[in-house]
Each structure stands twice: as structure tokens, then as C-alpha cells.
Amino acid sequence: MLSRPSAPRTGRPRSTTADAAILAATRAALVELGWSKLTLGDVATRAGVAKTTLYRRWAGKNELVVDAVAELFDELELPGSGSLAADIEGVVLQFAAILGRPEAKSGLMAVIAESTRDEALRARIRTSIVDRQKRLVLEGRARAQARGELPPETDPEASARTADLIFDMVAGSVVHRTLVSAEPADEAWVHSFTQLLMQGLRATAAS
Amino acid sequence: MLSRPSAPRTGRPRSTTADAAILAATRAALVELGWSKLTLGDVATRAGVAKTTLYRRWAGKNELVVDAVAELFDELELPGSGSLAADIEGVVLQFAAILGRPEAKSGLMAVIAESTRDEALRARIRTSIVDRQKRLVLEGRARAQARGELPPETDPEASARTADLIFDMVAGSVVHRTLVSAEPADEAWVHSFTQLLMQGLRATAAS
Amino acid sequence: MLSRPSAPRTGRPRSTTADAAILAATRAALVELGWSKLTLGDVATRAGVAKTTLYRRWAGKNELVVDAVAELFDELELPGSGSLAADIEGVVLQFAAILGRPEAKSGLMAVIAESTRDEALRARIRTSIVDRQKRLVLEGRARAQARGELPPETDPEASARTADLIFDMVAGSVVHRTLVSAEPADEAWVHSFTQLLMQGLRATAAS
Amino acid sequence: MLSRPSAPRTGRPRSTTADAAILAATRAALVELGWSKLTLGDVATRAGVAKTTLYRRWAGKNELVVDAVAELFDELELPGSGSLAADIEGVVLQFAAILGRPEAKSGLMAVIAESTRDEALRARIRTSIVDRQKRLVLEGRARAQARGELPPETDPEASARTADLIFDMVAGSVVHRTLVSAEPADEAWVHSFTQLLMQGLRATAAS
DNA sequence: CGTTAAGCGAGACGGTACGTCTCGTCTTTCC
DNA sequence: GGAAAGACGAGACGTACCGTCTCGCTTAACG
Known about the structure:
The structure is a homotetramer.
Chain A: H1 18-33, H2 40-47, H3 51-57, H4 61-73, H5 84-100, H6 102-115, H7 119-147, H8 156-180, H9 187-206
Helix pairs in contact in A: 1-2, 1-4, 1-6, 4-6, 4-7, 5-7, 5-8, 5-9, 6-7
Chain B binds a DNA duplex (31 and 31 nucleotides) through helix 2 and helix 3.
């Protein structure tokens, strides 16, 4: 009846502070060294922890970095500004700010690259990062519909498809602007982007 | 008009066939092993070449992979279909097809991740991949303007900004759909995406 | 009376069998390949040990070979034959027999050559090989003096000088005969050599 | 009219100065780097010569070093001092002086070590160095016999054996003193050594 | 309140790849 | 055809991390 069937009853319990220390050390190492020069031995040393402790909790570098990076995106939130355009602009700016931090840059793209050859890793990324933030799209649209800015959904499947499309466009465009074009996703750019997206949404919704 | 002004006159010249063999071997290794398990020693062996030959021509794994991946994108071309929407759909489908190949997936994201900590690498990516393909946006727009689908440009700076924005949106969205969401950028998705983008472009151009 | 005062208390202890296996593998490699073609990677493989284990215990090829060769000379012993001449002949024959073995030949001269440019290596050779065998000279002389074959020492400094001289002459002559002249240090040669040396010792002692 | 019967008639003749430059460069490299860190590429550079030129004239590092070192010993000569003891002391001092030079130390022992596994190299050493200097023993003995210090030879075979023995003792002892014991073969040591050797020779000759 | 069992630090272990160095050969052009 | 120049295939170098494996200690829950 227990939710965790393999709960260990005996033995010394795992240190409760170690996890946070390790994730923080991982982010610090990402900032200093970047993903490819980050080593688990170094992370362990920074966290004041033995390498074995680290391997007991994460399968490897990729899983560790996913968890370390995922925490960064949890601070995203809808501004609740009263208009869809402003909501989008607000979230995109927050997203761009996070992507500007070196621990996010370095780590996120690397684990995405790794995930192209590791199905379990891709699933972990979706669970920990992507799906968790997709709430912003859903909530933003719901508010816009409540305000009458967008028509209500009729087909739930089409609704999900559109949400996914918007999420891919928003996240993808900002990432590309920031990491590939390597130009700042500043207010001017975010405004242009939002304008184009909004016009498209409105026109599409109208048809 | 010499491409290499400082051509050495003496000594044995570099093998002219080795470069192509090495880049092909790199792509083969990317397919089989992915970026993180690709080793330069293995690439050299596959190419039938000594490791020193490889290091004589590329500074490291990143530079090599950039060159190997860049060649993949050179096959992109505008369909010349007669309408902007069809042109966009055509190019996006081609782009998605290339991104679906494992050598592109694995290599491209990895070098972008690496480039977040290596300015020279980022420049190489821009030169070899990004700027080279930006031609598609420029040419597509020019054709659309010639056909009267889009108004002619007045401000050259705004024109460049818009081209960059569109490029970031197209490339970023397809990459995100393919690699992060890990869902196929098939005809249905490409059509929805193109519709949204086109509506936005038309509405923006109208205002 | 602990030999290593700073014994580490923590961590996995070093394998106790590895040292002997490595030294034996080193001697086997010396026999097969000689010093200049001996590689540490090959020694590690022969010993069933990782290269890192080898480097953790020895600074390099030279130190390793010194230790491997030093063990060979530990089997030397005074015959206790009852006369100085017979003792000398006995030891010289044993020494020549060891020097005839390829692992000794190849290794000993090479590390001596290397030691001309490495003070620490020279010290290691003296400690591990030279000084350790000088006991034979001292003990042989002491026995001869006890038997009345040689007069007792009066000046301790002159005594040490003479012991060094004899050691250089014995070791040097046998090495030169064996390795440079490359002729066997057989019984006939050893007998002639011993005669000449004995005559010189007696005459010098008499004066 | 050419002195060399197989003189090449066509093409560019070999540079006559290159050989001397290469041997000098070899000695300079021995002084700076020692045998084990000396590389043929470096020697070629120092001599202002291409690596191919070097390989055209010597089979490898060992042969080159033998030739470079052999020249050093050609300056040895009998002092012609009028007594056997003084002749021996004189030659031994000269020999010790040469062995004290780093290019001799480093090179000589190394090629001897190499020669333990290379019959052709050993022959080259004997021809170029050992046998060439054995003249000193023969000439010194002949002069001593002419002066009546030593009895004339009767058995030519025994005569050769004794000359070899003395050569091994002289060369071996000085080498061991200098390189293994690493103490200076100064006048005091040479005097003691010569005394011991002379006494032995006289006593042996008398019996 | 002592047993027990997992967690912990430390660090050695067998591996693998790194990027560099030197080898001895080969292939150019110049003389 | 010799020489300088330098690229070539080969392979060892010594280092850095990998992920695993002892070790000798905590440190808590259970009995």
C-alpha cells in the first residue's frame, strides 16, 4: 500500500543536504567549466561529497545536469498582466534572462544534444523541464480566452496541437536567438517576436 | 583572387583526398556513436588516416564536427514553387528532413552547446552554417516581393532585423520540435507552422 | 620501527600483489624487447594491471627498471670458501652469471646511462644496487683479515677508500668484459683477473 | 682518377661538410638533452640539414651516436713519460677527463646498453672505439718491455689475453668509478688504482 | 542499548581517450 | 639526382576521468 514499494527501513539514511549541495555544485561547475569540461569528480569535491555518494543518486553526468538545470526554470511565472501580448512578452523575457545565464546555456543544449541518442534522457528532460513549463502556455491561453482575447477551444486534440506548436515556436525561437545567433533577446526583439506571433494567432483563430 | 594567400611552396603537399575522407568518417561516427562517444582516434581509423593528419587540419573535435555537419546543410534550396507559403513549407520540410538524420541531430546541438563557451567556435558555426543558409530567407523574401506577395523594403536595417527574426523563428521552431519535443516535423505540422508564420508576416507587413 | 611513518589510514589500500607482478613483467619485457623498446603500457598489460597503477607507484621507466634489476643482484652471496682468492672468484663468477642474463644486461647499462643526467636516478641506483652489494667487499675483507690473509685496518678512511676502489675494479672489469668486450667472463678469465687483483692487494698491503 | 670506385657520376654530390656538422650537432644535443631525449629531427635542425639527409648516411640514432662519440676518444695518446706507471696514470687521467664530459658520459653508456641487443651495433662500437684505443695498451706494454720494465712476451695468445684483461680492467674501473660510483677519478684515485694494477702486473709477470 | 545495515569519505583499481611527440618514409620543388 | 621542406602512417607518451571496488568509519532504526 506504500507509494514507494522499496522504501529502505534500515541502515543510515541518505544525507538530506547532499542533494542540494551537489546540484548547486553542478551549476557552479557549469558556470566555470561548461558541460564538456565538467567532471563528476570535480562536482563531488565542490560539494564536499565522495564520488560514490554522487553515483549512488544519479546515473551519470547527463542525469545530474538535467536536474541541476531543471531547477532554474521553475522560477518562470506568468506576469498576469491582463493582456495576452503582455503575458507572452513577460514570459519570453524571463525565459531569455534564464537562458542568458551560463549554467543554463551550457547545460541545457548539451543534455538536449545527448538526448538525441538516449531515449531515457529525453524522457527525463521532457518530464523535468519541457512539460513542466508547458503550463505557462496553457494557463496563458486560458486567461486570454477568459478575457475573450481568443475564442474558446472546441476540439481538444487541435487545442493540444496548437499549444505544442506555440511552445515550440516560443522556446525554439528564443533559444536560437540566444545561442545560435548569439544576439541578445532584448526588449526590442521580444516585442517584434511577440507582435509577429500574436498577429499569426489572431489571424489563425479568426479563420 | 587566391583563396589562400600564404601557400607554402616547398615540402610534400597535403593529401587532397584526406579532407573529404575525414569528414565522411566523422559523419559515419556521429551516426554510430553520437557526439559524446565519438573519438578522434576512431575517426582517423575510419578515414584510413593517422591521428596526426587529423590534428594537423582541425584544432579539435568541435571544429571537425562543425565542418562535417555544415556540408549537410548545403543541399538546402528554395523550391521555386511560385508562392511564399509553398517556398517556406518546402524549405522547412527539407530542413526538418536533414535534422532528422542522426549525424545532424547529434552533431549540431552538441557544437552549439560547446559554442556557448567558445567564441571562436561560435564564429565558425555562424560562418559555416548559419549565415550560409540565411540566403534562403533573403532569396525567398525577394522572390515574394517580386511577385507582390510582400511589400518592398524601405528601411534596410529593419529589413535585416526582420530577416534575422524569421530565420530564428524558422530554424528554432523546427529544431525545438524535432530535438526537444522529439516529435516529427511532418507535413501537417509544417503546414500549421507555415500558416501561423504567414499570417503573422502578412499582418505585420500590412501594419 | 615502522618503515613508513605516514601510512594512509583511509581509502582502498594498494594491491599487495601488484608490485611483484609488475617487476616480474618488467624483467620479462627486458628479456624480450630490451630497454629501449620496452614500453610501460606493455609492462602494464603483461602484469595484468592498468597503466595508471604503474604510474601511481613509479615515476617512470627508469625507476621501474632500477627496481626490477636490483632484485636480481640480491641473490649474490659470499661463498665462504675459506680463502680470499676463492671468495673473490666465487662472487665474480656469480656476478658474471647475473650480468649474462639479458634482463640484467639490457636494463643495468641503460639506467646507468640515464643516471648521467638524473641525479635522483643515480641516487636510487646507488641505494638499491651499488651500496647494497658493497657489503660483499666489506664482508670478504673482514673474513680475510680474521683469517690473517690481510692485515687489519688502521685508518678507517683509507679502509673505505680501498673498499671502494676494489668494488669499482671488480664490478667495472666484469661489466666491461661482459658488455663492451662482449666476451664471456668464464672461469679462466675470472681466475686470471682474480690472480692479478690478489697480487696487487697483497703487494699493496705489504707496503 | 677518383679515389672512390663507386663514385656517383651524376646528380648533386653529397655535401662534404654535412657529416662534420651533423656529428657536432649530435654532440651538442647529447650535452643539452642526453641520449634518451635526443631526437634525429632535432639533430637535423641543429646541423641545418634535412632529416632525409641524416637518414641517408646513418641507419639510426645509435649508429650516429657511436660515430659522434668515437671521435672524442681519438685524442687519447700515450704520454711517453719514460715509465710504465706514469704512462698508465697519464692515459687513465686523460680517459677520465673525456668520460667526465657530458657528451661522452651520456652517449657512451647508452650505445653500450643498446649494443646488448644489437650485434651489428656492438661490432661498430668495437671497431670505432674499443679496438681503436686498445693500441694504447699494446704500445704502452711494448715500451715498458723495451725499457726492461716488463719481460718480453713468449706466447702470443697469452699476450693478447693479458692485453685484453688489462684493457677491461682499466676501462671498466674508470667507467665504474665515474659513472656508477659517480665520484671523480682524480689524481689520488688514479694513483691508487695504478699502484694496485702495477703491483699485480709485476707480481704476475714475476711468477 | 547493542546489533545491524546502509550511507559515507577516501582513494586505488582496470579502462579508455586525450593531444603531443618522435619515428622512419614519402612526395614535392628547387638546385 | 641530392637536398630542404614538410606531410604522412604508426604508435608510445604521461595525464585525466570514467565508473567500480574496497576499506574503515558513522549514523540511525530495530529488536
